[in-house]
Every structure is written in structure tokens, then in C-alpha cells.
What does this fold into?
Amino acid sequence: MESKPPTVACTSCDRTWMSASMAEGLRLLGRCPRCGGALKFASDATGEPATAKRASEDADTLAPHLVLGIPRRFD
It folds into this structure.
């Protein structure tokens, strides 16, 4: 079975994300929530239209939980 390439990858820590929802949240955040590194989006390489982008000064002030949401709790 052929594996699908990741939607987003961090260029610093090599963390990858597969979902489009995570890609949109990470695009708004503007950096890796794990290490703060730069992100590489698959849509940028394929020429697909990018989702809404914030100005870099706005992205620097957003906390990851404001973009990605509250983590799920498994009781």
C-alpha cells in the first residue's frame, strides 16, 4: 500500500502532520508548536491555493492552543 505524503512537515524536528485541519491551524500559527521551527506545507509545493494566512506579526502573538484547540481528554 502506498503511503500518502504528509500535509505539513517541520524542517527542524521532522515532525509531520497529515490532516487538512491541522495544516490550516499550523498555517495560522506559522511555526512548529513542538520546537518553533519552520513548517513546509505540501500545498506550497504543488501550487494549490493556500488557505488564509495571517500577517507574520499576528502569528508571533498566537499561542498554539488558540489555533489548534484544547487537547482531547481520555478518561
About this structure: Residues 1-50 form one domain.
